[in-house]
Amino acid sequence: MMNFEERKAEIFRRSNNRIIERRKKRRRALGVCIPLCLILIAVSVKTVFSIVKDDLQKVESPADTDESNLFYGNAEDGVSANENPDHNYGYDGVIKDNTDVSDYDYGYKGDQDGSENKTDIPKNFSFSLTWNVNGCSSYNCETGELIKFKSAKEPKDYTAQLYLSDEQKIKIWNLLCDLNIDEYPKEYDPHGGTFGSDPSMTLILTVKYGSYEKTVTAENIALSFNAKNTKGQKFLDVCKGIKDILTSTDEWKSLPEYEYYFK
Amino acid sequence: MDNGASSYRRFLDGDESAFDEIMNELFDKLVFFIDRYVKDIQSAEDIAIDVFSDLIVNKHKYNFKVELKTYLFMLGRSRALNYLKHRKIINFVEINEAENLSSEYCEIERIVLEDERKKIVNNALNSLPDDMRIVVHLIYFEGLSYEEAAKVMKKNKKQIDNLLYRAKKELFVILGKDGEQLL
User: Is A145 helix (H, G, I), strand (E, B) or coil?
Assistant: First the structure.
């Protein structure tokens, strides 16, 4: 048994040890908690910041809203409506009424920039397409001359003036954007010469804007819009798409029936 | 005397001598009480030292709503039970050392139980179960109220009453006719 002084000394010694131990534990806990809290704060701030940033971007570019109500740059008057739901168009939130889009560099890049500014068609954009058996039908956007049957006895009867609407122009521009026309040679057979037909078909597609001009000629190819290769199919699809737009117009429908058909 | 509460208040105010007063008043009683549980006077002393160091380390845990003696006994019981729970190694002691320990116990007993009558009861207590022994200790030797004893033992007043009643009956049997006069 200890005497009084020994007991007292032992009590204070143990108390001091316990106090020191408790301080160490607190420091250890703080050593863990403070970095953990800082990390949590940093992560929270980063998360909040990214959420706010996303919200701001949504406010600035409401791309998910009804696109038919949005106005974009246009070839004729600088204003057009985007009604093609198949494409994701850029939107800069500015109505380009007085913008001379021909001043811009509209270098045709096909799919490389396919999703950007497709609605901002160049002001001096034009195209021409010749199709059908022996190339008997054609349309020239510059002159507006639509010919249904060149081989007719009276070709004038098969000729009409067609001025495409902004909407139709945008659709055609988008089709051409999807087709990287630079990839195609001037003389081209979308079927790869693997098969032919009698009669044959001719497709001549010309694209112009600014100083750029490219013509792809596919003469005397098989009379079919189904190719066995992707590249050729793409070309045929674009030509068929433009043809379908042209032949769906009232001007085309008002022209008389073909004088004869090939068997 | 308020069983050390005023002394502890003075100690908290910075009076170091007040702690000596508390130790003088309560340390031996606490050792004797803890020994009821651990049945080892040296372990009881060790635990009592820890209990008193609690008073220094956790200065503001004691809220003065119970007497300091009751508070210390509550801490002592808790630590004693904890000690018993975690005691895994049984220390075997030499016979001569055991004799020394026995003399130490007698010394504590002499200090705490000044009254000869209490010493007789104390000897009879060893044959009682733990709970009864401790209830008798708290009520008869330490002079705690039923409420205070209930707080120390974490029981209600009724349970204390029952335990004490049964303990008395046992003691009457052990002590015989003298028991009625002693209790």
Answer: strand
Length of chain B: 183
- Whether the Cβ atoms of residue B121 and residue B175 lie closer than 8 Å to each other: yes
DSSP A129: E
Residue B34's pLDDT is what?
A: 93
B85-118 tens-digit pLDDT: 887 655 555 555 555 556 666 766 666 666 677 7
Question: What's the rounded Cα separation, in Å, for the pair B25 and B3?
Answer: 8
What pLDDT is recorded for position B65? 86
For chain B, report the end-to-end CA distance as a whole number of angstroms: 25
Instruction: Please answer yes or no on whether B23 and A19 come within 8 Å at the CB atom.
Output: no
CB atoms within 10 A of CB A95: 14
C-alpha B168/C-alpha A262 separation (Å) is: 129
Q: Which helix (H) or strand (E) holds B103?
A: helix B95-112
pLDDT tens profile B72-81: 999 999 999 9
Interface mutation vs chain B, best among A2, A13, A14, most B CBs within 10 Å? A14
Chain-chain contact of B57 with A1 (C-beta, under 8 angstroms): no
Please indicate if any CB of chain B lies within 8 Å of the CB of A12: yes
